[in-house]
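Lab notes, practical 5.
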Amino acid sequence: MIEKLAFVLAKNIYLSVETEDIHKNNLKNEEIEVLRYGIECIINMSIPLMFLLVYAWHARMLLSAIIWFATFLALRNYIGGYHASSHWQCILYSCGYEMICLYGILKMMAISLKIKLLICGGMLLFNVWLGPVIYDIYLERYRKRFYKYGIIVLSGEVTLAIFLKNFNQMYENAVFMGIFSAEILYLIAIISKAGNGSIGR
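Output from the prediction step:
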């Protein structure tokens, strides 16, 4: 259903724009496919994001949720991670994962800063050793860039968490939870790829 909706929207958007190559079927189909994929990504992100904002507002954790989402997304973009096999699974898993992570922000109050930093140090070593998880062959040429930026983003987020500790422990925990939740999906993807015999590809 999401694929059909995205295709119809992409086709309408493409046909409403005047182009010089509108008569070239191959180019037209490629451009519609690119648009369709982008629209699918927007739908996949929008539904869980709206759910997160409504749920966080109801739980009185809106700012913490925004901080968590920003740190999670920033790190996940560079290290990669688990992807569901369908759009509906992605939306369902994302909404469930968001609820677990917001609950985790509250539970992290009991964990000391030293333990959090030790966990982040271990995660950094894993990221350095294994590198990013890349599913798209077209992005494989950017592996070194993702590798470098992933390490920079993780280091920057740890620094941000330490800084936020001076203002509000919930915000510190939101950053750490963003790191941990991105790294958990990263490890699931690494284990999955190892099980398929494709680790390091």
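Observations recorded by the TA: The chain is about 80% helix and 0% strand. The longest helix spans residues 25-58.
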